[in-house]
Amino acid sequence: MRRWLLTLPFLLLAGCAGLHAPSRDVEEAASPSVARDPADPQDCLARSDCTTKTSRTLLFNIHSQDWDEELLALFEIPRSLLPEVLDCAAEFGVSEPSLLGAAIPVLGMAGDQQAALIGQACFQPGMVKSTYGTGCFLLMHTGDKAVKSTHGLLTTIACGPRGEVGYALEGAVFNGGSTVQWLRDELKVINDSFDSEYFATKVKDSNGVYLVPAFTGLGAPYWDPYARGAVFGLTRGVKADHLIRATLESIAYQTRDVLDAMQRDAGERLRASNAISAELADARTTAAQEAKAAVAATQAQLDAARLNLSFTRITAPIDGRVSRAEVTAGNLVNSGETLLTTLVSTDKVYAYFDADERVFLKYVELARQAGRDTRSESPVYLGLSSEDGNPHLGRLDFLDNQVNPRTGTIRGRAVFDNAKGEFTPGLYVRLKLVGSKTYAATLIKDEAVGTDLGKKFVLVLDGDNKTVYRTVEMGPKLEGLRIVRSGLSKGDRIVVNGLQRVRPGMQVDPQKVEMASADTLATLARLRQSVGDSEPPKVAASKDNATRNEPRG
């Protein structure tokens, strides 16, 4: 691809949208057998064009001043389809007699912007034409040699006073008169475009307001199709007149940007050929540096405005439930002082507790015997005030590094899954922290346990239904039943009711009774499954506690 084909969407679409491989019929129709007749002036006019217009096709080599064979091959365009290229002051033919009443010779032709360059008599290097319409278009004549732009301009063809080929630098601003139309049609601050001058002169300046009219992106010298318009410097003292003046000034600023780029591109070459004085060249260099500094300052203002805009949107790092709004639209908010609202995590919740040092030391010893770290991987059971027992399983998440000497307690924290929304932050709960390792145990009613001089025992039935005295090691209660750590095995039959009337060695007629209700058995089954088949919820280490999926509050 030629270096002067800019890879910008609005240029490529303009130059290449109509290019496609022609059909065989078209090629035959354009074959040399039906080429123009040199003796027919009207056919000459239809089959010829000037250098300025053909340079707009992106298929014309402006250096060799001929159709570019490489590009024609790339787009599969037969050369026979294209017109003959002539100088702007060549004899192109005659007009259709029916149009003007006679066959009028056509002795000159030029494209729109180059025609304006001719109309302004810009034939010498360094001369610039600037015309305005929907946009703003500038051409600087650079003489008989093409100047390669390094500042975002296009190198194109111009022509001399006798039609000879010359070169120019071109810059196009997308929004000129369209910004005034925006004031009239969209903002409706003026009734007619001519009114803009009247209102702009009513104020001495724009009162610090600057408009960047990038409604369709930015053209030369920036070529940014994704830029968007912006207004800076708005205060309560800004009036419509200030905005109108800033709009007209924005057209001047954009024109100045293109002109500065032209001076930077062509200034050294013009100075070397003595087309301009050294003083003027230095002045242009200084102006270019000032313009560059102004662009940097404006960019800094834009960055600051974007940063301030981002502060108007407040987001939370976690998902959860928000409380009532403490402030509403129009209230004054001070950074770091005004409370907007509160947010609590609902996916997982924390339960904080304080344990005295005796319980803490006992727990540490049990954890050591079980081979477990006291600060991790320890199951915790939770119960609400409306529930019996502690049916909810969680995990110890945090244990402080020292005991509070004033209270003799140490702070701990457990985390629980709250996907079902069972827990509301702020509730008081019961916690049961497991210190020992997992072991098999038997659950029985307290009525089945007897006391013998400080020892606990139960009466077990043998195969002949005779009672046998057996000591047991008791544990805490779980769901209303007593845990038997040792002394009983699965399948043992024991005396539950009437223990005072039975003695060891007695023959009894056993009657089967339920050790627990159906609800209790279901709860125990759920607890056993939660311990054996599922992992309690875990949270990240303290350094990772800022992730959005972890609980807060």
TrEMBL record:
Residues 443-501 form the Multidrug resistance protein MdtA-like C-terminal permuted SH3 domain. Residues 381-433 form the Multidrug resistance protein MdtA-like beta-barrel domain. It is found in: Cell inner membrane. Residues 130-268 form the Carbohydrate kinase FGGY C-terminal domain. It comes from the Bacteria. Residues 293-341 form the Multidrug resistance protein MdtA-like barrel-sandwich hybrid domain. One of its GO terms (molecular function) is phosphotransferase activity, alcohol group as acceptor. Keywords: Coiled coil, Kinase, Signal, Transferase. Residues 528-553 are annotated as: Disordered. GO terms for biological process: carbohydrate metabolic process; response to antibiotic. Coiled coil: none annotated. The keyword Plastid does not apply. Pfam families: Beta-barrel_RND, BSH_RND, FGGY_C, FGGY_N, RND-MFP_C. InterPro entries: ATPase_NBD, Carb_kinase_FGGY_CS, FGGY_C, FGGY_N, MdtA-like_b-barrel, MdtA-like_BSH, MdtA-like_C, RND_pump_MFP. Residues 1-21 form the signal peptide. It is a lipid-anchor. Residues 52-119 form the Carbohydrate kinase FGGY N-terminal domain. One of its GO terms (cellular component) is plasma membrane. Belongs to the membrane fusion protein (MFP) (TC 8.A.1) family. PANTHER family: ACRA/E-RELATED COMPONENT OF DRUG EFFLUX TRANSPORTER, RESISTANCE-NODULATION-CELL DIVISION (RND) MULTIDRUG EFFLUX MEMBRANE FUSION PROTEIN MEXE. NCBIfam families: RND_mfp (TIGR01730). This is Uncharacterized protein. It comes from Pseudomonas aeruginosa.
